[in-house]
Amino acid sequence: MRKKSVTVLIISSLLLSAAAHFFFIQEWFNGRFMIGPNDGLSQMAPFKKFIYDQYSQGNFFYSWSFGLGGGFYSQLAYYFSTSIIFLMTAGIVFSLETIGLISHPDLLFWINTILPVSIIRLSLIILTAVFAFRYMGIRTTAAFTGAAVYGLSVMYFRHVVFWEFFTDAMLWLPLLVIGTEKIIREGKPGWFIVAWSLMFFNNFYFAYIHLIFLFIYIAFRWIVPLSRQEYPKHKQLFLFFLGGVISFCIGAVSFIPAVYGFLHNYRPAYEEQIPFFFITDNILHASKYIILPAILVLFLFLVPLYKERTYRFFALLTILFIIFHFSPLAASAFNGFSAPQYRWEYLLSFTAGGCVAAGLQSLHKVRLNQLFLSIIISFGLYLFMAEAMTYVMGPKLMMMFEEQIDIIIQLFFLAALLLCLYVWRKHASTFFLLQLVIIISGLVIVNGYEQMTMSEKFGVDRVSRDTLQDPAYNGAEQQQLIKKIQHSEQDPLVRIDWMNPLRNNTPIVQDFNGTSLYSSILNEELLFFYWRDLQIDMGRESVSRYATLGNRANLYGLLQTNYWMREKAEAANAPFGFEPVAESAHYIAYKNTLSLPFIRTARHVFYEKELKNRSPLDKEHAMLSGVVLDKKNGKSDVPPTEKNRIDEAVIKEKNAAYDNGQLKVTKDNGGIVITPRLSSEKTKDYYVQFYIENVHGKGFAVKVNQYRTTRKRAASIYKTGIHTVLIRVPKEEHIAIQLPKGTYKLKHLKLYEEDYRELQQTAAEKSTPAKMNWDKNKISITYDNHTDERYMALPIPFEKGWQLKINNEEKEIEKANFAFIGFPLEKGNNQIELIYRPPFFTISIVLLVLGVAAAVWLIRRQSSKKQTS
């Protein structure tokens, strides 16, 4: 292709992309942003800000500020830590910041970059798709039109608004097709290796989706050969396999840590039955995933086009993916055989684009009577789908899409009319007009989708500058109180328990060390710590979040959380031992008077196995009295025990009937009231534990005195599957468990008293005589063990990647206190060095070097073969 033609394509792609973003460009000038109010503001923007802050400081792997601490390079590889588009953006931003053209980028900066980056990304997607279709023998104008069908997909805008990193996959897909075709047609593996190396590095999840696509693509290519001379199939297999292995090695530096992070996240098994076929939406008129262009529907019923191999190939793939769209089982397969997720439909957009491009190239062979038949069948299908979805969704819900349906029907008739004119006269001007209408139709649909679906129905129009400064997200009053705490506190490792409701990444947004995190990939040790071992209620059941420490004073001391901040209305739940230290008009902050040092040593050793059936309160006391280890390697001490006092309490119903473990609540906020026995004067708090489940599988809220938490419905894919709840209650005469009207399983009631004797004793002890320095991913500790302490425990979450040396000798790190780091001490002086690197990072670097060398060898080998043949 000539240089001038390439320039025209680049400009055309950029202009088309800008036109596709026209609605959001208008919104930007009106002070609104191209980002979703939920995951967009809660995850996408905060993670970009966080990663840039860490990378620009030279910290690439681990951060104490990432939730309770974690290897963000590994755990955020699903998002942006290894995203090539983000890394390129961050590199440009860092350069601008370094030379002084911009100040250090804040959250608003990253939200503002979404629109220009999206315009450039979409133009690259369209451009690479053009080259892919051109390589397959399709003329440039038809290839550009097909690429427009691919790029102007509603899924692109759904993804970029809610989960921006998803859209990168649309850029790698055409590169993968070019690489695959290069091997099949010419036996050249270079493009294939480049494409797969980028995908392995960029995102393991979409690399998996593309692997499924690759198998399907190759199978169909072998069934439908597209060129007369193709590389022998056994040699293709060799190059596919070897190229894949080499690509894996090159991308391993990102892929291996990312996959390790994914495998050491925990999601309960999806228990619902997954049907093979189920109509979920209307992909002709009003789907939130994909809307098939009218020209594609018309082409699919044009029988003469199937005589052309390239069209037949893309049409069969498109029909297969349409079937897959209506198969929850296929959606589950694309999601790793877990809960069905519809994130792969951009594959259908690509094959649809190829189908349109190939169809346009062969359209001159269609006769008018054949076209009339296609129009009749297609229009009948449009009517049928509209009626069917009205029946499924109901007339009221379908009225929401009435305007969108009218527009699409009009576009259908316009496309049909132009098809008739071209097939009748075969004029080049009509053909050009047809292609122009196809592109304009795509622009109309995506801009309408941006406005009517994304903005108006999904609340994107609510995201403005005011939203970013709203108290529900990042209010100025909250920021001032946080800064006041930080200025008064000299310890940089101290945590603050504060987050806006449902915004678990508030600590990232407001720049402080917190106790909450919202991410699809989390350290499973922390999840088990919250759900199973300590049963810490987070105020909201979720598999992808952890938050707060349940207002339990023992845990605050153990995990360096010395501040507790809430709205003043919630002050009654302040943990024991916390006293007011600062306040504003609506918020109040408390400081822990029973804080514990970051470095703790222990003479007493307990084991998880021995505490397995003990109460969480017993486990807290064991951690305060010594250290709890995962693996038993010696004699243990006798762990302390707290008595279950529920049999001594009086239980009464309130607007409810309670019998044999079943509670029927007849009025909202009904339930049971527990009146404990006359407790000791030393008792400060109660811990009440119970199993709770809605009999009909509904989601519900539970109130225990002043504390409120929520439980998910049984069908939710985000439920933990754990129904036992433990709530700390400040000492009162009565403990009321209140529920909405309904029927519940309520059993295994337990009640414990807490006097905090162990916490007070531990806090009163002298601090550990140790010196510590933490620099990025390296911790140095000097400790003189003159009292023969057995173990050192640190409130750093246990995860693979930490390496330990004591007095220059490598030692094994043990899981301590259920989810954190511990290790045995030596007598006398201990020079301790902890270094974190992503899991298998050294091996990954070796594989990278070997992969690059192997790629150079294989590409040269194949090139020399082609020259000598």
Short recap of the structure:
The protein has 869 residues and is α+β, with helices and mostly antiparallel strands. The protein has 4 domains: 444 residues, no CATH class; 102 residues, no CATH class; 115 residues, Galactose-binding lectin (Jelly Rolls), CATH 2.60.120; 70 residues, Immunoglobulin-like (Sandwich), CATH 2.60.40.
Describe, in plain words, how this protein is organized in 3D.
The strands form seven sheets. A five-stranded antiparallel β-sheet has the order 10-13-18-15-16, with no helix packed on it. Helix content is 47%, strand content 17%. The longest helix has 31 residues, at 233-263. It is built from 29 helices and 27 strands. Strand 25 and strand 26 (820-824) form a beta hairpin. The chain has four domains: 3-268 and 282-459, no CATH class; 476-522 and 544-598, no CATH class; 646-760, Jelly Rolls, CATH 2.60.120; 768-837, Immunoglobulin-like. It is α+β, with helices and mostly antiparallel strands. The chain crosses the membrane at residues 76-96, 108-132, 138-158, 204-224, 236-263, 283-306, 313-334, 346-364, 371-393, 405-424, 431-449, 840-859. This is YfhO family protein. Keywords: Membrane, Transmembrane, Transmembrane helix.
